Amino acid sequence: MPLEDKLNILTDAAKYDVACTSSGVDRKGDGKSIGNCVAAGICHSFSGDGRCISLLKILMTNECIFDCKYCRNRRSNDVPRATFTPEEICTLTMEFYRRNYIEGLFLSSGIIGNPTFTQELICRTVWLLRNRYRFNGYVHVKAIPGAAPEIIQQTGFLVDRMSVNLELPTAEGLRSLAPNKHRKSILTPMRQIQTGIQVNRNDLVLYRNAPKFVGGGQSTQMIIGATPESDYQIINVAESLYQKFDLKRVFYSAFVNVTGDKSLPALPGGSPLLREHRLYQADWLLRFYGFRAEELLDEKRPYFNVMLDPKEDWAVRHLERFPVEINRAPMEELLRVPGIGVKSAGRIVAARRSGSLTFPDLKKIGVVLKRALYFITCSGRMMYPVKIEEDYIVRNLTTEKDRVRFGSDGMSYKQLSLFDDVEFTRPVTVIERQQAAVGQL
Questions:
Q1: pLDDT, tens only, 287-305
Q2: Are residues 380 and 326 in contact, defined by beta-carbon separation less than 8 angstroms?
Q3: Residue 19: what pLDDT?
Q4: How many CB atoms lie within 10 A of CB 93?
Q5: Which residues have a Cβ under 8 Å from the Cβ of 73 and sit 6 or more positions away?
Q6: Which of 112, 192, 383, 402 makes the best surface tag, with the fewest CB within 10 Å?
Q7: Which of 224, 159, 152 is nearest to 191 (CA)?
């Protein structure tokens, strides 16, 4: 088969694998090799400094010995098949790099022959790139569950990041849709990579020139919506993976029915993209904002609110903790205020050492006052006269179109009443806003 035809088949087959990112890697060019890896990235992903960058994202092969019901490349699916040789992947990577199309390689694969043989092909490919072609750019590959540990170990010293796909959130889901795969065989290489990274850190302390083992850490991917797990179950699994396996990222992939298998959900509303988005937002809260999974959801309320992001939803349910005084609140309290991110919270803590902050100061710092004003005070004053009341705040955080759909998640958002306190429910005029800004109200 011509190389161009293989490329068309195997790049298209790789598009459903979203577990790729490159943050945490920083390796400059050495003057001898081709390329570098200074915060490089993957396939229209975002690097640590915010740049959108690209990477050649392909499969080694779309042949597979497994018959997972959700997978386009499953054994029983009638699709064109192709397999790259290690030399072909190296040629493609170098030619694309020289044309400035890519900054690195993301290599995944179906299982051809057996897991160890497939991992050997991946390892051989990366070895050739590093040693024969002198490629020093970013490389992210898959660790194949069931492969021999020594091959995974060898691969880890050649790449920047490895990932082992968890596939589905629970073992029950895996048994129903991927009977050839087992949770233990997936977690075993994940644990090996974690241990290898920890040992390598100690080696780097003792020996400065020791080779790095998976310097960018490891990640995983979960398919969302193919099995009936709730958001509460999914976010607890993600939290457990971060705590027990030191993962850099957990990726969530909204289920797309590409096989038409009868055992898969019909999804009349289409792929659950909004649900995926809410899970990513909650994942961010777990990783950077100090939240725990049990704070965001519970068994009585197992799904995220589709109208409010998880942070806003948590805030309106815990109004007893607000308002927060900007000039005195510790960092961990600032991070829980909607509209205040990690960077803006750090800037607030740094800026208030020089004097009291006002609302105009917060706007310059980067706080989204449109969301934050209901939850904060500056020197004891709120920005406008508002109620610290769940229904009032939600009405102002959402659009009229969204409010029509309220009630589906059990939240009690009231309609405006003619008997409400006029001072708080009437619209705030432009003059009042200007007066409030200068502290005259």
A1: 999 999 999 999 999 999 9
A2: no
A3: 58
A4: 25
A5: 13, 59, 62, 63, 64, 79, 110
A6: 402
A7: 152
Q: pLDDT tens across 315-367, in order?
A: 999 999 999 999 999 999 999 999 999 999 999 999 999 999 999 999 999 99
Q: Are strands 324-325 and 376-377 parallel, antiparallel or unpaired?
A: parallel
d(CA 82, CA 392): 58
> How far apart, in whole angstroms, are the C-alpha atoms of residue 216 and residue 213?
9
Strand order in the sheet with 249-254: 56-59, 104-108, 138-142, 161-163, 218-224, 249-254
> Among candidates 189, 187, 181, which has minimal Cα distance to 214?
189
- Please enumerate in sequence order all residues whose Cβ is within 8 A of that of 254, keeping only pairs 6 or more positions apart, or say none: 224, 225, 271, 272, 273, 275, 276
pTM listed for this prediction: 0.84
Between CA 76 and CA 71 the distance in angstroms is: 10
Contact 344, 365 (CB under 8 A): yes
pLDDT digits (tens, 9 = 90+) for 312-329: 999 999 999 999 999 999
Token pair of 395 as six digits:
């009405």
Let me know: does 361 contact 354? Beta carbons within 8 Å. no
DSSP 3-state helix, strand, coil percentages of the chain (rounded to 5)? 40, 10, 50
